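Sample entry follows:

_____
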Amino acid sequence: MAPKTSTDVRDRVVLVTGGGSGIGRAVCRAFAQAGARGVAVADVDADAARSVADGIGGLAIEVDMGDEADVQRMIARTRDTYGPIDIFCSNAGILSVGGIEASNGEWQRAWQVNFMAHVYAARDLVPEMLERGGAFVLVASAAGLLTQVGAAPYAVTKHATVAIAEWLAMTYGHRGLQVACVCPLGVRTPMLLDNLDESPLAEYLEQGAVTPEEVAGTLLEGLADGRFLVLPHPQVHEFFRRKADDYDRWLGGMNRLHRQLEGE
Protein backbone atom coordinates (compact mmCIF):
# COMPACT_ATOMS: atom_id res chain seq x y z
CA MET A 1 0.00 0.00 0.00
CA ALA A 2 1.27 3.45 -0.90
CA PRO A 3 1.97 5.72 2.08
CA LYS A 4 -0.85 8.13 2.85
CA THR A 5 -0.01 11.69 1.89
CA SER A 6 -1.67 14.69 3.49
CA THR A 7 -1.38 18.38 2.75
CA ASP A 8 -1.13 21.34 5.09
CA VAL A 9 -2.60 24.40 3.38
CA ARG A 10 -0.66 26.96 5.37
CA ASP A 11 1.97 28.88 3.41
CA ARG A 12 1.12 26.97 0.21
CA VAL A 13 0.58 28.28 -3.30
CA VAL A 14 -2.84 27.31 -4.60
CA LEU A 15 -4.42 27.52 -8.06
CA VAL A 16 -8.18 27.04 -8.35
CA THR A 17 -10.02 26.83 -11.66
CA GLY A 18 -13.66 27.85 -11.92
CA GLY A 19 -12.83 30.06 -8.96
CA GLY A 20 -15.16 32.91 -9.84
CA SER A 21 -18.36 31.41 -8.45
CA GLY A 22 -19.94 28.47 -6.69
CA ILE A 23 -17.69 25.77 -5.28
CA GLY A 24 -14.56 27.36 -6.75
CA ARG A 25 -15.20 30.69 -5.06
CA ALA A 26 -15.81 29.00 -1.71
CA VAL A 27 -12.64 26.92 -2.12
CA CYS A 28 -10.55 30.00 -2.90
CA ARG A 29 -11.84 31.75 0.20
CA ALA A 30 -11.31 28.65 2.34
CA PHE A 31 -7.70 28.27 1.21
CA ALA A 32 -7.03 31.95 1.91
CA GLN A 33 -8.62 31.74 5.37
CA ALA A 34 -6.58 28.62 6.12
CA GLY A 35 -3.35 30.54 5.56
CA ALA A 36 -2.34 29.83 1.96
CA ARG A 37 0.55 32.07 0.88
CA GLY A 38 -0.96 32.79 -2.52
CA VAL A 39 -4.26 31.88 -4.18
CA ALA A 40 -4.70 32.19 -7.94
CA VAL A 41 -8.35 32.48 -8.98
CA ALA A 42 -8.85 31.27 -12.56
CA ASP A 43 -12.15 31.53 -14.40
CA VAL A 44 -13.54 32.00 -17.90
CA ASP A 45 -15.37 35.03 -16.45
CA ALA A 46 -12.59 37.57 -15.88
CA ASP A 47 -14.77 39.92 -13.79
CA ALA A 48 -15.87 37.09 -11.49
CA ALA A 49 -12.27 35.96 -11.01
CA ARG A 50 -11.19 39.50 -10.25
CA SER A 51 -13.97 39.99 -7.70
CA VAL A 52 -12.99 36.86 -5.76
CA ALA A 53 -9.25 37.59 -6.01
CA ASP A 54 -9.71 41.16 -4.79
CA GLY A 55 -11.59 39.88 -1.77
CA ILE A 56 -8.79 37.54 -0.66
CA GLY A 57 -5.72 39.36 -1.93
CA GLY A 58 -5.20 36.78 -4.65
CA LEU A 59 -4.36 36.70 -8.34
CA ALA A 60 -7.13 36.75 -10.97
CA ILE A 61 -6.59 34.90 -14.24
CA GLU A 62 -8.96 34.64 -17.18
CA VAL A 63 -8.77 31.16 -18.73
CA ASP A 64 -10.54 28.81 -21.10
CA MET A 65 -9.93 25.40 -19.56
CA GLY A 66 -10.82 23.67 -22.82
CA ASP A 67 -7.74 25.20 -24.51
CA GLU A 68 -4.42 23.57 -23.60
CA ALA A 69 -2.36 26.65 -24.47
CA ASP A 70 -4.57 28.76 -22.20
CA VAL A 71 -4.18 26.24 -19.37
CA GLN A 72 -0.40 26.39 -19.77
CA ARG A 73 -0.52 30.19 -19.73
CA MET A 74 -2.60 30.12 -16.53
CA ILE A 75 -0.09 27.86 -14.80
CA ALA A 76 2.88 29.93 -15.98
CA ARG A 77 1.32 33.15 -14.72
CA THR A 78 0.68 31.61 -11.31
CA ARG A 79 4.29 30.41 -11.10
CA ASP A 80 5.60 33.80 -12.21
CA THR A 81 3.61 35.50 -9.44
CA TYR A 82 3.93 33.09 -6.52
CA GLY A 83 6.47 30.42 -7.43
CA PRO A 84 5.85 26.65 -7.73
CA ILE A 85 2.26 25.51 -7.26
CA ASP A 86 1.66 23.31 -4.22
CA ILE A 87 -2.07 22.62 -4.61
CA PHE A 88 -4.02 22.58 -7.85
CA CYS A 89 -7.81 22.43 -7.61
CA SER A 90 -9.26 21.51 -11.01
CA ASN A 91 -12.82 22.63 -10.39
CA ALA A 92 -14.03 24.27 -13.62
CA GLY A 93 -16.90 22.43 -15.27
CA ILE A 94 -20.01 22.90 -17.36
CA LEU A 95 -23.43 21.29 -17.27
CA SER A 96 -24.56 19.76 -20.56
CA VAL A 97 -28.08 18.35 -20.47
CA GLY A 98 -29.79 15.97 -22.85
CA GLY A 99 -28.95 12.49 -24.02
CA ILE A 100 -27.54 10.92 -27.14
CA GLU A 101 -29.38 13.55 -29.15
CA ALA A 102 -27.10 16.30 -27.79
CA SER A 103 -25.09 17.85 -30.60
CA ASN A 104 -21.51 16.87 -31.37
CA GLY A 105 -20.49 20.37 -30.34
CA GLU A 106 -22.10 19.97 -26.91
CA TRP A 107 -20.41 16.61 -26.38
CA GLN A 108 -17.04 17.98 -27.47
CA ARG A 109 -17.23 21.08 -25.29
CA ALA A 110 -18.20 18.97 -22.26
CA TRP A 111 -15.29 16.63 -23.01
CA GLN A 112 -12.79 19.48 -23.28
CA VAL A 113 -13.83 21.40 -20.17
CA ASN A 114 -14.98 18.59 -17.90
CA PHE A 115 -12.21 16.12 -18.73
CA MET A 116 -9.34 17.21 -20.96
CA ALA A 117 -8.75 20.26 -18.77
CA HIS A 118 -7.55 17.87 -16.04
CA VAL A 119 -5.19 16.17 -18.47
CA TYR A 120 -3.81 19.47 -19.73
CA ALA A 121 -3.07 20.62 -16.19
CA ALA A 122 -1.60 17.29 -15.11
CA ARG A 123 0.85 17.26 -18.03
CA ASP A 124 2.30 20.52 -16.80
CA LEU A 125 2.03 20.21 -13.02
CA VAL A 126 2.56 16.56 -12.10
CA PRO A 127 6.28 16.33 -13.06
CA GLU A 128 7.06 19.31 -10.82
CA MET A 129 4.87 18.00 -8.00
CA LEU A 130 6.69 14.66 -8.09
CA GLU A 131 9.96 16.49 -7.47
CA ARG A 132 8.82 18.71 -4.61
CA GLY A 133 5.47 17.32 -3.43
CA GLY A 134 2.01 18.61 -4.07
CA ALA A 135 -1.70 17.92 -4.22
CA PHE A 136 -3.79 17.55 -7.36
CA VAL A 137 -7.50 17.95 -6.63
CA LEU A 138 -10.18 17.09 -9.18
CA VAL A 139 -13.75 18.21 -8.55
CA ALA A 140 -15.97 15.62 -10.19
CA SER A 141 -19.51 14.93 -8.99
CA ALA A 142 -21.58 12.15 -7.54
CA ALA A 143 -22.66 11.85 -11.18
CA GLY A 144 -19.17 10.48 -11.83
CA LEU A 145 -19.86 7.59 -9.45
CA LEU A 146 -23.61 7.15 -9.88
CA THR A 147 -24.45 8.81 -13.26
CA GLN A 148 -27.12 11.51 -13.74
CA VAL A 149 -30.59 11.34 -15.22
CA GLY A 150 -31.14 13.64 -18.19
CA ALA A 151 -27.55 14.82 -18.62
CA ALA A 152 -25.52 12.29 -20.58
CA PRO A 153 -22.57 14.54 -21.59
CA TYR A 154 -22.20 15.71 -17.99
CA ALA A 155 -22.47 12.22 -16.44
CA VAL A 156 -20.09 10.62 -18.93
CA THR A 157 -17.41 13.29 -18.61
CA LYS A 158 -17.66 13.25 -14.81
CA HIS A 159 -17.14 9.48 -14.91
CA ALA A 160 -14.02 10.19 -16.94
CA THR A 161 -12.89 12.68 -14.29
CA VAL A 162 -13.14 10.01 -11.59
CA ALA A 163 -11.21 7.63 -13.86
CA ILE A 164 -8.31 10.03 -14.47
CA ALA A 165 -8.20 10.83 -10.74
CA GLU A 166 -7.92 7.12 -9.96
CA TRP A 167 -5.22 6.71 -12.60
CA LEU A 168 -3.18 9.60 -11.24
CA ALA A 169 -3.47 8.27 -7.70
CA MET A 170 -2.45 4.72 -8.54
CA THR A 171 0.37 5.84 -10.83
CA TYR A 172 1.93 8.57 -8.69
CA GLY A 173 0.63 8.13 -5.14
CA HIS A 174 3.62 6.00 -4.11
CA ARG A 175 5.86 8.79 -5.39
CA GLY A 176 4.38 11.38 -3.06
CA LEU A 177 1.63 12.99 -5.17
CA GLN A 178 -1.58 13.48 -3.22
CA VAL A 179 -4.69 13.10 -5.38
CA ALA A 180 -8.18 13.93 -4.17
CA CYS A 181 -11.45 13.47 -6.06
CA VAL A 182 -14.44 15.48 -4.82
CA CYS A 183 -17.87 14.01 -5.61
CA PRO A 184 -20.79 16.03 -4.22
CA LEU A 185 -24.48 15.58 -4.94
CA GLY A 186 -26.55 18.77 -5.10
CA VAL A 187 -24.72 21.98 -4.24
CA ARG A 188 -26.40 25.39 -4.02
CA THR A 189 -24.56 26.93 -6.95
CA PRO A 190 -25.82 28.64 -10.11
CA MET A 191 -25.37 25.34 -11.99
CA LEU A 192 -28.10 23.83 -9.80
CA LEU A 193 -30.27 26.79 -8.83
CA ASP A 194 -30.55 28.24 -12.33
CA ASN A 195 -32.03 24.95 -13.58
CA LEU A 196 -34.72 24.39 -10.94
CA ASP A 197 -37.57 25.43 -13.23
CA GLU A 198 -36.35 23.38 -16.19
CA SER A 199 -35.03 20.18 -14.67
CA PRO A 200 -36.96 17.80 -12.38
CA LEU A 201 -33.62 16.36 -11.30
CA ALA A 202 -32.36 19.79 -10.22
CA GLU A 203 -35.42 20.19 -8.03
CA TYR A 204 -34.82 16.71 -6.59
CA LEU A 205 -31.14 17.43 -5.86
CA GLU A 206 -31.90 20.82 -4.32
CA GLN A 207 -33.82 19.14 -1.49
CA GLY A 208 -30.62 17.75 0.00
CA ALA A 209 -28.20 20.31 -1.39
CA VAL A 210 -25.29 21.62 0.66
CA THR A 211 -23.62 24.99 0.40
CA PRO A 212 -20.41 25.61 -1.54
CA GLU A 213 -18.80 26.49 1.78
CA GLU A 214 -19.62 23.05 3.14
CA VAL A 215 -17.99 21.44 0.09
CA ALA A 216 -14.90 23.60 0.58
CA GLY A 217 -14.69 22.63 4.23
CA THR A 218 -14.97 18.94 3.40
CA LEU A 219 -12.25 19.33 0.77
CA LEU A 220 -9.80 20.90 3.22
CA GLU A 221 -10.55 18.13 5.72
CA GLY A 222 -9.94 15.54 3.01
CA LEU A 223 -6.57 17.06 2.13
CA ALA A 224 -5.54 17.10 5.78
CA ASP A 225 -6.65 13.47 6.23
CA GLY A 226 -5.05 12.26 3.00
CA ARG A 227 -8.35 10.95 1.59
CA PHE A 228 -8.73 10.19 -2.12
CA LEU A 229 -12.51 10.21 -2.30
CA VAL A 230 -13.99 13.35 -0.75
CA LEU A 231 -17.75 13.09 -0.24
CA PRO A 232 -19.57 16.22 0.99
CA HIS A 233 -22.72 14.06 1.03
CA PRO A 234 -21.87 10.95 3.13
CA GLN A 235 -24.85 9.04 1.70
CA VAL A 236 -23.06 8.87 -1.66
CA HIS A 237 -20.77 6.23 -0.17
CA GLU A 238 -23.77 4.01 0.57
CA PHE A 239 -25.29 4.61 -2.87
CA PHE A 240 -21.97 3.70 -4.49
CA ARG A 241 -21.70 0.54 -2.40
CA ARG A 242 -25.20 -0.56 -3.43
CA LYS A 243 -24.33 0.01 -7.07
CA ALA A 244 -21.27 -2.22 -6.77
CA ASP A 245 -23.13 -4.88 -4.80
CA ASP A 246 -25.90 -5.39 -7.38
CA TYR A 247 -25.49 -3.47 -10.63
CA ASP A 248 -28.75 -4.75 -12.16
CA ARG A 249 -30.79 -3.83 -9.11
CA TRP A 250 -29.19 -0.39 -9.07
CA LEU A 251 -30.02 0.14 -12.76
CA GLY A 252 -33.60 -0.83 -12.03
CA GLY A 253 -33.72 1.77 -9.28
CA MET A 254 -32.32 4.41 -11.60
CA ASN A 255 -34.98 3.54 -14.16
CA ARG A 256 -37.66 4.05 -11.52
CA LEU A 257 -36.12 7.38 -10.55
CA HIS A 258 -36.07 8.44 -14.19
CA ARG A 259 -39.76 7.60 -14.62
CA GLN A 260 -40.61 9.41 -11.40
CA LEU A 261 -38.74 12.57 -12.35
CA GLU A 262 -40.21 12.60 -15.84
CA GLY A 263 -43.72 12.00 -14.51
CA GLU A 264 -44.11 8.75 -16.41
Summary: The chain has a mean pLDDT of 90. Residues 111 and 157 are 6 Å apart (CA to CA). The two ends are 48 Å apart (CA to CA). Strands lie at 13-17, 38-43, 59-62, 87-90, 134-139, 177-182, 229-230.
